[in-house]
Write a structure and sequence with these properties.
Distance between the termini: 23 Å
Number of domains: 1
CATH architecture: Beta Barrel
Number of helices: 5
CATH class: Mainly Beta
CATH topology: OB fold (Dihydrolipoamide Acetyltransferase, E2P)
Radius of gyration: 17 Å
Structural class: alpha+beta
Helix content: 10-25%
Strand content: 15-25%
Largest sheet: 5 strands, mixed, barrel
Shape: globular
């Protein structure tokens, strides 16, 4: 996969301001691929597209509609279908020390380093997998997107019924702010598959709804790879 570098200058959309803008656009039926990051930097991401919006003064490379490797903001119609409302102020916060791959992080929680597996999703295997036969270029793409978004960032953790799995990894839904859960954005963008983690199934049916939407819209890898 080719890598493209984008020099991000000025103010990037972040947090509530970004989500408010996207929600307004979504309510008008406009679906925009976006960069949900919050830092200004020289960013190199495998085929990650950043699309200029009417509110932005930045100049970005023109998007290629045939490029599937985009993280999409969730339209308001799906946000309203979440199974319950979450107040991130009540959630535990953690710092992302390292992104292992598209669904696994190394975090610092209460001063202790821990490994976290994002609930309800499964990303393609990346080059971090010691088994070379399982490594995929798609996995490296998703991993690159998550790395640019999360490395060094504060996240909010929503737990389900069981906080850990048999490997002693934390299991959680990762929120970036009051309106943005990364797990659901990855599903809706067609970059991960949906998996069931009993007894942690609070969002399972909802994620399946997002997955069907990604398939119907040919988003992410459904455009070219996961076309079953």
């Amino acid at each position: 996969m080719n890598s493209r570098s984008f020099h991000l200058t000025g103010r990037l959309f972040a947090g509530m301001a970004l989500i408010l803008t996207l929600s307004l656009l979504a309510s008008c039926g406009i679906l925009l691929p976006v960069d949900l990051g919050s830092a200004s930097a020289d960013v190199t991401v495998p085929d990650l597209r950043i699309v200029e919006t009417a509110e932005s003064e930045e100049t970005y490379e023109e998007p290629d509609e045939t490029d599937p490797y985009t993280l999409y903001a969730l339209p308001a119609e799906f946000i309203s279908e979440r199974p319950h409302r979450v107040d991130v102020r009540t959630l535990q916060t953690a710092e992302v020390e390292r992104v292992v791959d598209g669904d696994t992080l190394v975090i610092v929680l209460d001063g202790q380093r821990d490994r976290l597996r994002m609930l309800g999703i499964n990303a393609p295997e990346s080059s971090s997998n010691p088994d070379e036969s399982r490594q995929t270029s798609e996995g490296d793409i998703v991993s690159g997107i998550v790395k640019e978004l999360l490395t060094g960032r504060t996240i909010y953790l929503e737990f389900d019924e069981a906080p850990r799995d048999q490997y002693d990894r934390l299991l959680a839904y990762v929120w970036l702010d009051e309106d943005t859960m990364l797990n659901e954005n990855l599903v809706f963008s067609g970059l991960v598959t949906v998996v069931r983690f009993p007894p942690n199934t609070a969002y399972y049916d909802y994620f399946r709804t997002l997955n069907r939407a990604a398939r119907a819209e040919n988003l992410g890898f459904y455009k070219s790879v996961w076309s079953d």
